[in-house]
Write a structure and sequence with these properties.
single chain; mainly alpha; Fumarase C, Chain B, domain 1; Fumarase C, Chain A, domain 2; 2 domains; two-stranded antiparallel sheet; two-stranded parallel ribbon
């Protein structure tokens, strides 16, 4: 197809064209909905400042809405299309002729791509966070069912002190709520309208950037055109870091469950819904989905490094290097959302085996409890510590000792004081807030594309 930048004489070598486009066209098609919405907002602005007549603006918007009705959220592209911006402009021009040639007035592909990525990122962060709260609710239900079962806590991979399953789950839920807060902070930082900043140097027109900000559900304008260009890649690195925070916690869950499911321990029982077999060893029940979660957390981390490496040491302004940021960003969202859904299935298909756990408890796991019992008898902690270390072989793994160990751990957040209702309430609050933001964004897109 003809390029929007073609001045009539250029003939780009096909090898160069293929290399320059790379795989970007595969990901640009996913941004079709946002390109249409941003273009509609821009057209409304062009009518306001007199670049388009009311009739021209209405005709362009009708074409854009018809394209949405025809293709939906995604428009598959070819290498020849180059990018989603060029494709949409071509489709409009094919329908409306010279009117279509006016719509690029006041904008550049430089601010177009940042605008549609920003819209994509906002919606994906909200959708991912909502899915995340679904998983946290499932984990709460799991803790209610399995939470009282005992579990050894480990330091240096050695048994340390006795805990329970609710304690194990609560640790991950609290970190998850931190992860959601981190995402909310990023959402606030990136919620700025880049449209109208042009190629990075401003535009010789009195654009109404607040109007397009309002139309596209941005809370404010990203004022400096230079900041707009230099934020590309920086914001994406923040976002992928927030996704890695989630995946890193998932990796720890996966590693714990793999350990607990070892044949030598079997603290955790699985079933055929979540395990695979071996092509040669008939006995195998492989919990290998956990291994893939562990591996994919490293892929998201690598994606973060990739983005930071791509944008490091660039001269200020637009550089085509940033095109390569799109793939690791989109892939990271896909990995996290799929992992969230996978873990929901996992928690629905595992259970802890308390009898197996009891068989593997060491005497030493009660040593700290003994030391504190002596502290309550007015021994100094150092005296109590020494005495307890000398009595480890006398300790016994009995049900009453187990229950006493859990019962006596009364400091806030300890196994005896875990308040699942507090976490449940906080998750519900976060879900309500996120859903309201998500609904507002979706309503904004719907109004532009279908209203």
């Amino acid at each position: 197809m003809p390029k929007v930048w073609n001045k009539g004489e250029e003939t780009l070598d096909p090898t160069i064209e293929k290399y320059e486009v790379g795989v970007d066209y595969l990901y640009d098609g996913r941004l079709f909905k946002y390109e249409l919405a941003a273009t509609i907002a821009h057209v409304i602005q062009l009518e306001k400042i007199g670049i388009l007549s009311k009739e021209e603006a209405r005709n362009v918007i009708n074409v854009l809405k018809a394209l949405y009705q025809k293709y939906g959220n995604v428009l598959p592209l070819s290498i020849e299309d180059e990018d989603i911006h060029s494709k949409v402009e071509l489709l409009i021009t094919q329908e409306l002729g010279d009117t279509g040639k006016k719509i690029h007035t006041g904008r550049s592909r430089n601010d177009q791509v940042i605008t549609i990525l920003r819209l994509f990122e906002k919606e994906e962060l909200l959708e991912t966070s909502l899915l995340y709260t679904d998983l946290l609710e499932a984990m709460i239900e799991f803790a209610k069912k399995e939470g009282k079962k005992i579990l050894p806590g480990y330091t240096h991979t050695k048994q340390a002190m006795l805990v329970n399953v609710a304690f194990w789950i609560a640790g991950f839920i609290e970190l998850s709520l931190d992860n959601i807060q981190f995402i909310k902070n990023i959402l606030e930082l990136i919620d700025k309208n880049p449209l109208g900043s042009g190629s990075g140097f401003g535009v010789p027109l009195q654009l109404d950037r607040q109007l397009t900000a309002n139309l596209l559900n941005f809370s404010k304008i990203q004022t400096s055109p230079m900041a707009v260009q230099n934020s590309r890649g920086k914001y994406e690195a923040w976002i992928v870091d927030s996704l890695w925070n989630i995946m890193n916690d998932f990796s720890r869950i996966a590693e714990d469950l793999l350990l607990f499911n070892m044949d030598e321990l079997m603290y955790v029982k699985t079933n055929d819904n979540i395990t695979t077999g071996s092509s040669i060893m008939p006995q195998k029940k492989n919990f290998d989905v956990m291994e893939l979660i562990r591996a994919r957390s490293k892929i998201v981390l690598a994606n973060s490094f990739a983005i930071k490496n791509i944008i490091s040491d660039l001269v200020s302004g637009y550089n085509r290097d940033t095109q390569e940021v799109k793939e690791p960003l989109i892939k990271s969202f896909v990995i996290v959302k799929e992992t969230i859904q996978t873990l929901k299935v996992v928690f629905a298909n595992i259970e802890f085996d308390e009898e197996a756990i009891k068989k593997h408890l060491s005497r030493g796991i009660f040593a700290t409890d003994l030391a504190y019992k002596l502290v309550k008898q007015n021994y100094s902690f150092r005296e109590a510590y020494k005495i307890a270390s000398q009595k480890i072989e006398e300790l016994e793994v009995k049900d009453n000792i187990i229950q006493e160990s859990i019962k006596n751990r009364i400091s806030e957040g300890s196994p005896a004081t875990i308040d699942l209702k507090k976490y449940e309430k906080k998750i519900k609050e976060e879900k309500t807030t996120l859903k309201a933001k998500s609904d507002t964004f979706k309503e904004c897109m719907k109004k532009l594309l279908e209203g």
